Amino acid sequence: MAFDVNDAPREMTLDNRTTLLDALREHLGLIGAKKGCDHGQCGSCTVLLDGRRVKSCLVLAVTLDGRSVITVEGLAGPDELSPLQAAFIAQDAFQCGYCTPGQLCSARGMLDEVDRGWPSAVTDDLGAPPDLTDAEIRERMAGNLCRCAAYPHIVAAVRETAATR
Asked: Locate the 2Fe-2S ferredoxin-type domain: which residues (predicted)?
């Protein structure tokens, strides 16, 4: 199968039971996405697949042929942080850092969803562009757990990034 990872073409032959998470970590050496629960419940393995957030532990690698994956390693250039990564640092939006790669990928995906006008379960007016309130950010980031409880800082970092877009 052939697919792009962080804008670089990759070709791989894998067992058909291999997950995207294992392909990234074990076969490509991209260890940013973390194996947390292996059940899609914690979000530590979140990456962007064709621009949309996915839990990579739930995606079979054989479904990737011709698709594009962005991991936390691909969010910024080699010598600079993305605005989102800089905001996470400025807002102290991580404690132990284990969930941070998944949080960053999820936040990037949710900001793109907001830019496209997609509503969430708490969006008040479905006919208007979503207003990125703290409640809206919390709802959209609900699939990513932080065992250190840095949630207020994560919300602040996402809000800061959204204000500059």
From this structure: 1-75
Give the separation between CA 95 and CA 9, rounded to whole angstroms. Answer: 34
DSSP 107-128: HHHHHHHHHTT---TT-S-TTS
Element containing residue 68 per DSSP (H, E)? strand 68-70
* d(C-alpha 126, C-alpha 147), whole Å: 32
Backbone angles phi, psi at 19, to 5 degrees: -85, 160
Residue-wise pLDDT for 103-157, tens only, equals 999 999 999 999 999 999 999 999 998 999 999 999 999 999 999 999 999 999 9
**Strand pairing of 68-70 and 46-49?**
antiparallel
Residue type, 108: R
* CA neighbor of 123 nearest in space, from 134, 114, 113, 136: 136
Q: What is the pTM (predicted TM-score) of this model?
A: 0.95
